[in-house]
Automatic annotation (TrEMBL):
Gene Ontology CC annotations of this record: acrosomal vesicle; motile cilium
Stretches assigned to the IQ motif and ubiquitin-like domain: 118-260
Coiled-coil ranges per UniProt: 19-53
Gene Ontology annotations of biological process type: cilium assembly; flagellated sperm motility
Pfam entry (one): IQUB
Source taxon at top rank: Eukaryota
Identification of the protein by name: IQUB protein
Keywords: Coiled coil
Length: 437
């Protein structure tokens, strides 16, 4: 029996050691795989950022370009002020200004090419609407009890078919002058059935083209005029009052007067725009400038890049939605508020490791039992955030000095956001919960 026990213990010990070695090997392989994955993700982010700067296409891409230009200008200005004096300093600053002007012009050229691509996308969108327009000319169809398809042209579908034929005709190119005039006259008498400002403008443009054609004006000089006629006629087609069949295919408000209640005036560009075109921070009391004006002012003055803050805010909102506890504060916070929170409260670094790479940082709840708020948050790396959310007792896990430091940051955030009317009720509720606890 003793011999059997001896050999069994030996086998069992060897089995345990082998099992531990295998676990260690798997853990090291997993850690190595995670390190490779992190390295690949970081390289991929850098590659995408470099690609965005090399071939900018979106608003965020140009934000990054102008931000890098501003950083470069600050570094060069500091270097010149530190190393040069007198006339040499003025000459160097002048040369730097010339170089900045050239770079801005280069960015402007990239922006023009990006606008051309956006115009192509707009043309594709127009083609999508053209497909929608084809549906207006289709007859009504239904299947009978015997499986046969029955088609019936209604008054509205016939109207849509008529407008479709006219639209196709006015878009034809290289047709004889007589046929073109005939098409224009058909269009003229069609739109004159409804008297309004739009139809009057179409009729005026048609008369102008006929007059220019009678004067033997070249075809190439009439392209702009013909495009205007097509655009206005397309607008005519999209109006349910003139084309009833389109009412069921596009979203048209029942009462157009209700649109006026949701239109605001931008005092900078002097345009009336919908509310979605106005970035309104949580601390704002009035409607300010539109997004385009903010972007133009940012490119000319501060040249700040909100891309990284936008990523953090989007990830935060996604994580809050996953909690499914009806959190609201995170959706009141806008990009300028998030920027202030990260830069001034958390100093753009992780509270634990002091990592300052914003691509690696996420903002999560400090106490996961309560909804996220500027006074219930912490800025950590992704790995630290995963570990933090697994904790059950923060007081036992973290040391008292660290908890005190986090609480001080929460107090600073409370003092800042307490001035915002939209946050006041949430702050009051948070204070009541703290007193109850």
């Amino acid at each position: 029996v003793i011999v059997i026990q001896k050999y069994f213990r030996r086998w069992h010990a060897a089995y345990l050691v082998q099992n531990l070695k295998e676990q260690r090997r798997l853990r090291l392989a997993q850690e190595a795989q995670e390190e490779l994955q992190k390295k690949w993700e970081k390289e991929e982010k850098l590659r995408r950022e470099y690609e965005k700067k090399l071939n900018p296409k979106t608003r965020e891409d140009f934000e990054l370009l102008y931000h890098d230009l501003q950083l470069w200008m600050q570094e060069e200005t500091e270097r010149i002020n530190r190393t040069l004096t007198g006339a040499k300093r003025k000459a160097a600053l002048y040369a730097l200004l010339e170089e900045e002007t050239e770079l801005i012009a280069c960015i402007g050229m990239h922006k023009l090419s990006a606008n051309l691509e956006n115009q192509k996308k707009a043309i594709l969108h127009f083609l999508e609407f053209y497909k929608l327009f084809l549906k207006c000319a289709q007859p009504r169809r239904w299947k009978a009890f015997d499986g046969k398809i029955t088609e019936m042209d209604t008054q509205n579908s016939l109207r849509g078919k008529e407008l479709l034929e006219i639209y196709r005709s006015i878009n034809l190119k290289d047709i004889p002058k007589d046929e073109r005039i005939s098409v224009l006259l058909t269009l003229k008498w069609t739109v004159k059935e409804h008297e309004c400002k739009l139809t009057q403008e179409i009729v005026a443009l048609i008369d102008r083209e006929i007059d220019l054609m009678s004067r033997e004006v070249k075809e190439c000089n009439l392209e702009g005029l013909r495009k205007r006629i097509c655009t206005l006629f397309l607008q005519y087609i999209k109006t349910p009052e003139f084309n009833p069949q389109v009412a069921g295919l596009i979203k048209v408000p029942q009462d157009p007067l209700t649109l006026y209640k949701n239109v605001y005036f931008c005092h900078s560009c002097e345009k009336y725009l919908p509310p979605s075109e106005f970035p309104i921070p949580a601390s704002s009391h009035t409607i300010g400038r539109c997004r385009s004006c903010y972007q133009l002012d940012n490119e000319a003055r501060k040249r700040e890049a909100y891309f990284k803050y936008r990523l953090i805010l989007e990830n935060l909102r996604k994580s809050e939605v996953d909690y499914q506890d009806d959190s609201k504060i995170v959706f009141l916070v806008q990009l300028p508020d998030m920027q202030y929170l990260i830069e001034n409260i958390w100093n753009c670094q992780s509270a634990l490791s002091a990592c300052s790479d914003l691509y690696e940082l996420v903002m999560i709840r400090w106490d996961k039992q309560h909804e996220w708020s500027p006074w219930n948050t912490i800025l950590l790396t992704k790995e630290e955030a995963d570990a933090h959310l697994k904790l059950h007792n923060l007081q036992k896990t973290y040391e008292a000095p660290f908890i005190y430091k986090i609480e001080q940051k929460h107090i600073r955030a409370k003092n800042y956001f307490a001035r915002i009317p939209a946050m006041a009720s949430f702050l009051h509720r948070s204070n009541n919960q703290s007193n109850a606890n």
